[in-house]
Amino acid sequence: MHKLNRRSVILGAMALPLMSSVALAADKILASVPGLSFPFFVHMMNAFKAEIAKQGYEAIESDGQVSSPKQTADVEAAITQGVKGIVISPNEVDAMAPALQQAVEAGIPVVTVDRRVPSVEGILAHVGADNVKGGEAQGNLIVSMFPNGATIINLQGQSGASPAIDRNKGLHNVLDGMADKYKIVFEQTAGFARDKGLSVTEAALSGLAEAPQVIVAANDDMALGAMEAVKARGLSGIAIIGFDALPEALAQVRDGGLTATIEQFPGQQSALGVQTLVAFLKDGTKPAEKVLLLTPVAVTKDNLNIAERLGEVK
Question: In the predicted model, is pLDDT for residue 1 greater than 90?
Fold first, then answer.
């Protein structure tokens, strides 16, 4: 009897920290992004945290480190802690589906931002940019700038990431119907990374008999890497088009290093994602539409003022 009482006391003592942890997590929201090594996701995380605090909750910050296992572990830990909800930009849509399904089954509402996971039906909402239209905006800009046709290098984004897939689809939606005039002479993923944008562009330029008229990239980091490769070879007159409207890219658009970038309003996406989640947490309000998409816009020197992060440009 003495041993039983002692064991009960020990178990009770062990349970107290766990119960305390869950109670504390009750007012917390997990905010997770694919990787804080990317300036785009740093901006998204800052917007997440600002809106979560504004709504009266505390953010648990998750850096996926461009690793689906790492991001999965963060989601699973949040489920164990009993967070109120999750806002997440998944690293890979397929790889992250099981963890998000686990959250949904645990009764934790999930809102995806930027990258959608359609295979998990119980997700409360998705907020993002219409990346197909963003890719189409790149294609339409090429057509307007080069009405007689152009040769193009296409730097694709991270394999398996829905924005990369959709932006590439949008670009091809515009150009494939005019393949006799607009020829993609090189096309390869550069993983959304600047160093790969540089090295892949160097390899492409080395393998082509003539320099292309356009380099189009699925994000600004790759476009900025491509810009360095073009400068290193002493080339000029190549239109370089990025995507994301990062402050550094906007500065280069202003100064002539880049021709354009695509604004997809990530701060607005992030804030709307948190607002959608909190509306459900507070009174069970579900969004009228499960998929909420903002329309991306091409930003050139002529309309820099529309850029969300123009105030950060140095």
Answer: no
